[in-house]
Give the backbone structure.
Amino acid sequence: MTLWTLATPASHQLEVKHSRFLAQAAIIDSADAAQATLAPLSDPAATHNCWAWRVGAQYRSSDDGEPAGTAGRPILAAIDGQGCDQVLVVVTRWFGGIKLGAGGLVRAYGGAAAECLRRAEKRPLILFAELEFACPFANLGDAHAALNAAEASKIDERFDADGVNLRVRLPAERVDDLKTRLRDATRDRVRFAAQG
């Protein structure tokens, strides 16, 4: 499944029974970035600033005073439902005088977030991984050819008496292919470091 992130920040506004909802989506890459981005997107004069974010396996959400589970979780569900990652969505509500009930709140918050993300310009999110391996001197040229074919970039290269230890970075989906290429190219003389 391809994950998506935003190409640019996005927003969407809607009105439900005189309450105004403004959904704003921003690109983040960590929990710290989410916290730093939250304040500028929130309106202290609004009734509620509910939010959710996801960065890989990490996620958080807040109902900001709305009944539990009626705002933050539906916003997070919208992020996940759109296949997004590295995204923060803040939905600000200005109360219009008519209570919406739990179901109405879930629909309003989740709907505003989902429509904001649907309309947003997105780009595929490429997850990277690191791979470390040792290679004999005699097979170094073959190893470099395999790295180029897999579009791996060298992070570190250390020489010792037995050969070279390389640490490379590449799209996570290409790691298994690179391992196969390296084994084939060196006649199984490479040794991979254990992944922590």
User: Anything to note?
Assistant: Residues 4-124 form a domain with the Ribosomal Protein S5; domain 2 fold (CATH 3.30.230.30).
